[in-house]
Amino acid sequence: MSFRSLKKKSTYDGPKLEDIEDTNVPPRLQKQLGYYFAGIEAEFSQVCQENEQLKSKLRQLERQISMKNHVDTKDHASKESFPDVDGPWQNLPRNASQFSKKVMIKYKEQTNKIVSSFRPPHVTVDIKHVGRFSGHKDGIWDVSYCKGLKGRPIIGTASNDRTARVWQAEGQQNCLLKYVGHSGSVNSIRFHPTLPLVLTGSGDRTAQIWCCDVPESDIVYSEHSLPHNSEEEFSDPEEAEPDNNVASVVVRTPQKTLTGHNNAVTAAEWLSGGTQTVTASWDRTARVWDSESGAIIHTLTGHDQEITDTSVHSSQALIVTCSKDTTFRVWDFRTSIHSVNVYQGHSASVTCAIFTNHHDSIVSGSDDCTVKVWDLRNMRTAISTIQCDASVNKLAISDESHHTMAIPFDNRHVRLYDLQGTYLARLPRRSQPGHQRMVCSATWASEDNAANLFTCGFDNRTIAWKITVDHDSHR
Asked: What DSSP line would sit under 237-280, residue for residue?
């Protein structure tokens, strides 16, 4: 079972009739079991629908309460600005201007963390659909970009169909390699910073390191390898999409298997340099490994519930883990005495937290429908808060000069923001060339590529986009 299936999937993921047809169970019992399983599936689907309806009502109530508090605060401030009025305000200080100033300062402190949802007039965003990658038989949990070896940029996808794939990111965008070494859902995928190695984490409780070096002579090009036309009308997401992009190479055996977790591995990352890795698991621990020997170097404990994701700083010995316990933790290995800081800024499961490369800050996303930007030097309160309308999944931040955040959501949206939390644009969806189901992950590529943003989701597709952000066009 996939590591997010209990939260994300809306269909029954237990045994089915076809799972027992090859067993020694008599046909009569097979039919009876199939009947029971169908009933369980129907009941499970109904519970999921009721749960989604309750979550929607809860979000509406939270928004109404937030708006009411906002109005009450404004009324409170206006009354305190006139302390000579009758009623409970008559005992307030007589220096109205001084008192009003204090009230306005406090009011600004309460409201300046909620960012604007309108794009500033001096910013324009151009969004172009470049193509899509099809071939996975189930939802795609993660996508990762690599500049590639031999000047060939590639992307990797991790899927609930128990496979990972490596694709050519430009040109014909064909599938170069299919990895089938895991026995459970593949939940994350990351490329080694310098070597042709890939790290994947899986629901089979392991992380595996395998080789992705595909010789040019082994690549098979076919007419089905061409990217889908951006003007194509997408089919119904319920229809199974054919695997019309057959992998050139199939890899079955890992070079190294990292074994030790007691539950699904939700995420795995290379540490700076690639000699070590870190994994996060539903067993409430994260572990740091020696990549060559497979030995455990550190076990990071402290989270009260399952760990949902982990990320590392690009140049410093910092690791962040986030959890269903509504917190994320920053583990500092820059000194011999290791330290950890716990941050409580969300009211629901923290689904992702990543460091920014050019700022001393960290960005976290949550099922409480918010994204928060934090200053690592002062993490008591968030610098800015983006209020969203759906749960947030694995977001990505561009390394280029504009530092744009791509935030994927459960409701099929992908929105773009800057690091100040200002809304920039929304990627097309549904009937347009976008996702038709939950978007699980996003990753940025080099700005000079034909496509510089890749998104994946539970419509079994990865989509390539070209995003251009111009900050000076209206100045």
From this structure: TTSPPP--S--SEEE---SEEEE--SS-EEEEEEPTTSSEEEEE
421 phi, psi to nearest 5 deg? 85, 15
In angstroms, the Cα distances linking 349 to 93, 321, 326, 329, 373 are 44, 12, 5, 13, 16
User: What are the C-alpha distances in Å from 92 to residues 81, 88, 89, 100, 103?
Assistant: 10, 8, 6, 11, 12
CB-based contact 191:181 (threshold 8 Å)? no
Q: What share of the chain is helix, strand, coil (3-state, %, to 5)?
A: 20, 35, 45
DSSP bridge pairs for 144: 156
| 401 pLDDT more than 70 | no
158 Cβ neighbours under 8 A, 6+ residues apart: 140, 141, 142, 143, 164, 186, 187, 188, 189, 200, 201
d(CA 227, CA 245): 10
Q: Phi and psi of 79, rounded to 5°?
A: -70, -40
Arithmetic mean of pLDDT, 360-379 = 91
pTM comes to: 0.72
Instruction: Find all residues with CB under 8 Å of 246, minimum gap 6, and list them.
Output: 135, 175, 220, 222, 224
Name the nearest CA neighbour of 395 among 413, 404, 407.
407
**% pLDDT > 90, the chain:** 49
Query: Tokens 């019309």 sit at which residue?
Result: 244
Instruction: Say which DSSP state 228 is in.
Output: P
Q: How far is CA 319 from CA 128, 314, 330, in A?
A: 34, 10, 6
Confidence of residue 101 (pLDDT cuts 50, 70, 90): very low
- List phi, psi (to 5°) of 195: -110, 160
